[in-house]
Each structure stands twice: as structure tokens, then as C-alpha cells.
Amino acid sequence: MRILKLNEENKKNLLEDLLKRDPNHYTQYADAVQVIVDTVKAEGDRALFAYTEKFDHAIVTAENVRVTEDELQEAMDQVDPELVEVMKRALVNIRSYHEKQKRYSWFDTRPDGSILGQKITPLASVGVYVPGGKAAYPSSVLMNIVPAQVAGVSQIVMVTPCNAQGKVNPVTLVAAHLAGATQVYKAGGAQAVAALAFGTESIPRVDKIVGPGNIYVALAKKAVYGHVSIDSIAGPSEILVIADETANPRYVAADLLSQAEHDELASAILVTTSQKLAEEVAGEVDQFLQELSRKEILEKSLENYGYILVVDSLQEAVDTANDIASEHLEIVTANPFEVMTKIRNAGAIFLGQYSSEPLGDYFAGPNHVLPTNGTAKFFSPLNVDDYVKKSSIIYYSKEALEPVHEDIIKFAEAEHLTAHANSIRVRFEGKE
């Protein structure tokens, strides 16, 4: 990994370089995605099945697009029982954490007879997109479905690509069953996102679409936003580690590589106050690269977006972390809790040498669907609030409205909205 003494110029270049990975920069795919979305909207199942055959080389029809109980049982028989038990234990932690996020309707009554409040209502239906292909991500299945279930969403529709034989990855299916998906369909890519957004003869329309995917999925979610809600436009994975001379270089190197292996656009950045640690981590990274299975991806990721930045103080390290606003932030310092209080921008914060990023990916409980590409400056991790909507409740008696009605009339007339003013005035005709 390259080691840089951080200064304002290379910091500016680094920030600009990282932002190039944003899906919004891949506009050359947008027109093709829009065609797919528009065609599925217009033609429904016919287009969905045609695109599935074209892109996934699978023959899917109205008769076999939905995963059956027999297919689910077949998947259960194929998955290692020990892995099933691990997923069940992870589910306990994930559900327990998200239960604490749940909020309830409230009402505030006042002596003047007015009642103000907020009504919390779960979304009626949610679509969960799960990538297919060579890899399976059961952890993402759990992370997207569990908060929806905790929120009270009654219809949780999952879509995921099948292989050429029409089979869905069995681990993905088992995770969907354990988490509580109500329906699973064999559909992937931009065409699956469009099907969820507009509905087809086979796949129901949903109110919100969540879940990760490739650039075509990301751009499709962007294209349907407004017709439905979405969680976010997710970018490549990121990790930033703040470390001082007390950190274990082998642990830090391993954690950086845990994100770099995702894909060639993933970023892995160490910000440290110790030149010695920087050199030791670089050496450990080189050693790990000879041992790990995804060497080609790791090397390209580190070449593109891997940095070891040496700074003069922990405050400079904190400032750099806040500017980058990384998806995952590890703090491995003598007093990580003190450093954590100064962090403003991060998707998830991991404290201490034994709180490595994969702990959050799989088991601890907090959601691993996190803001990327600097959006941690204004976005939060996926949570129960993403699956509910809020309605304001307003009640005023005549006695409560009377003392303030002239104030409302004056406000409305200041905006030249005379019908607004009249709506209040008619209730007190003859009183002036």
C-alpha cells in the first residue's frame, strides 16, 4: 500500500478520487437502464421474462417465477445445518438491536382543548433486492428484512436472480425464510427493480425498494425513485481506520483487506500518527496478499483506492475521517472512546482492536447497510424508521382556535392566500 504524508493538496486529490466511484458518475449506463424500466412498466411480465432470459439465460414464466415451498425445502436440505444455526444466532442479535429503534405514536393534550401528535404507520409493502451471480450474501438478506419485520411491514417481497437452471442460491433462500420474507421471486437486475416499482402480472408493486446491487440496479432504483421510495444509491464498500502507535499492525492490515476484497472500487484507508505503524501495516498487507484467495481483486482495489496516510496528530486524523465520511470507521487508539466523541461523519464506528468490521457485517446486530461515498455526512444506516411513515395529528377545539385565529388570518394574508384566510375567518363570522 502507498504511504503518504498527508497535506492539503493530496487530501483534496484523495477526496476527489473517492467521489469518482459514485454510481451517479456512471451516466453512460443510464439510458440503457431507463429503456429497461420503461419497457417493464409498459409490458409487465412479458418484458420481465424476456430480460431474464437475455441477461440471466434462464427461462422464467408466470408459473415458476415465484419460489415455492418445495424449492424452499430443497434449499433447507442443501445448506449446512451449522450455518443455519449461525444465521439464527445472528438473527437474535439483529432483531434485538432493531427492536430498540422502534418508535410509537404519541399524543400531547393541552388544557385549551388542543391535541397534537404523531401517528407511526408501517409501510404496507417493501421490496428487497438481493444480488445473485457467483456470490451469496445471506447477511444482507437478514439486514434488509429484519428491520422491516420489526417495523410491522406486512408484505416483504424479495427478488433475486436465478441461475440458468432456474435455481436460486440455497443459502439466500434459507436466509429469506429465517428472516421472514413473505414472497420470493426469481428476478434480478434493473428489470426486477422496475417490476417492484410498477408491478407486473406476477410481481406485486411495493411502496419502497431496498437492498444492494450492481450499477444497473443502482441506476434503476434512481430511475424509479418518486414512483416508490428507495433506501439509497449504494456505492462500493469503504473502510477507514484511525490508529496510533498502540495499534496491532497485523490486525489493522487484516481489517483493511476485509473491505478491499469486495471489488476493485472498494476503498481501504489507514490514517495514523505513527510512521512506524504505517510501514508495519504496509508489510503485513503484502504478506496477507500472498495468502488470501481474492488476490487479484485485492491488489487492484489497493492500487486504485488503498492509502496509508500519516498525520501529525489525532485531531488531524479525526478531521480527515470527518471529511471522508467513510461507510465503516475503525478507531484503534489508546483511548478510542475519546476519539469517537469527535467523529461527526461515519456510517458505523468500531471501537478497539477486537471490534473488527466483519463483526458488524455478520453478527453484532447493528445494520450493515450503510451510507457510502461521503453520504454519511447526511444519511444514516438502514433502520426501523426506514420502514415506517409518520402522520401529524392536529385537533383544535373552537375554544383553542379562537384566541389565535386572527394571527393565522394575518399570516395567510401576508402570503396573499385569501382562501386560506377565509377558511379560518368563516368559523368566527359575527364575532368581530
UniProtKB/TrEMBL annotation:
Catalysis: reaction(s): L-histidinol + 2 NAD(+) + H2O = L-histidine + 2 NADH + 3 H(+)
Keyword DNA-binding among UniProt keywords: no
Enzyme class, first EC level, given as a word: oxidoreductase
GO MF annotations in UniProt: histidinol dehydrogenase activity; NAD binding; zinc ion binding
GO cellular component assignments: cytosol
Signal peptide: none
Cofactor detail note: Binds 1 zinc ion per subunit.
Superkingdom of this protein's organism: Bacteria
Pathway, per record: Amino-acid biosynthesis; L-histidine biosynthesis; L-histidine from 5-phospho-alpha-D-ribose 1-diphosphate: step 9/9
UniProt keyword Oxidoreductase, yes or no: yes
Active site as annotated: 327 (proton acceptor), 328 (proton acceptor)
Gene Ontology annotations of biological process type: L-histidine biosynthetic process
Binding site for Zn(2+): 259, 262, 361, 420
Binding sites annotated in the UniProt record for substrate: 237, 259, 262, 328, 361, 415, 420
EC number: 1.1.1.23
Binding site for NAD(+): 129, 191, 214
Function of the molecule: Catalyzes the sequential NAD-dependent oxidations of L-histidinol to L-histidinaldehyde and then to L-histidine.
Record family assignment: Belongs to the histidinol dehydrogenase family.
Name the record gives this protein: Histidinol dehydrogenase
Organism: Cuneatibacter caecimuris
